[in-house]
Structures are given as structure tokens and as C-alpha cells.
Amino acid sequence: MRFAILSALFALAAANPLPRSSSGCFTVSQFRNSGSPHSISASVSFSVKDAATALSASCFASLSIQPSVVTTQFPTTCNDTTVFFGVEYNPGVPGYYLTLAHVYNDNKTVDAGSVWLGSDIKRFDNPSGNPNGDYDYLNYPSDFTVGYNRHTQA
């Protein structure tokens, strides 16, 4: 009797497996979020890689309303349409946040993470003396990592 009950429970558990989670790391390089000299636009751009999944993508967004730096809502698509990002300002914990997600395996696996970029806006003063060449930029390293959690839906 006990064997029959245990067998039924194991069969049920195998039929409805729980989602699994693990963690990893995105590698971001060439990150830049700034205005543009002699322009009223700003852009954010970077490359993202993940050795665990052979991911390699380039991400870009721009605004032409003379912002100091770019904010773009998640999910903004990168050149690889399985990769999404967002750069958003959070006044509650003052600063900018970068969110990244990679969706793959027929939408059954999502690697997602975010990092606080701070709120240190600096001004680049054009050495030529032309004030139209000045622009603001988010002072953050160009190369860094973003830890992620992996969620796999069976």
C-alpha cells in the first residue's frame, strides 16, 4: 500500500516539475551613457556577453530631447532579439539602474539581473572652448559584470 502511494506521488512530481533556478553573470563592456557633442541627443550603448550561453549582443538606445543621460524602459530590445535591457532612474534610492534579461530555449529559460549605476553625472567640457561641444555623461566604469538569476520553466 505504501509503495503504491509513494509511486503515485513520485509520478505526480515527475509530471509537474518545479521551475529550477541557478545563477550566472553577464559581462558588460564599452558601456557609455552620455549626451553627444554638438547635438541635442543622448545615447546609451554597450556590449553584453555570457560565456555560459555563448551570448554576444550589442545594445543601444537614444533620445533626442536633450536629456543629460538616457533612460529607456525595460524591455528595450538589443540587436539580438532575445536580449532586453532598461536604464531607469529610481528616486526612492536615487540613481540609475541597468536591467538585463536573456530569454531563450523557446521562452522557457530567462537569465535576468540588474545593477545600480549610481547617480554621478559629470560634464565633459570641450577643450576647443565651443560650449556646443560640451555634454553630460553618467560616470560609471565602461566594463563590469551583472549577476543574474536563471529561471527555467520545465
From TrEMBL:
The lineage of its organism: Eukaryota, Fungi, Dikarya, Ascomycota, Pezizomycotina. Keywords: Signal. This is Carboxylic ester hydrolase. It comes from Drechslerella stenobrocha 248. Residues 1-15 form the signal peptide. It comes from the Eukaryota.
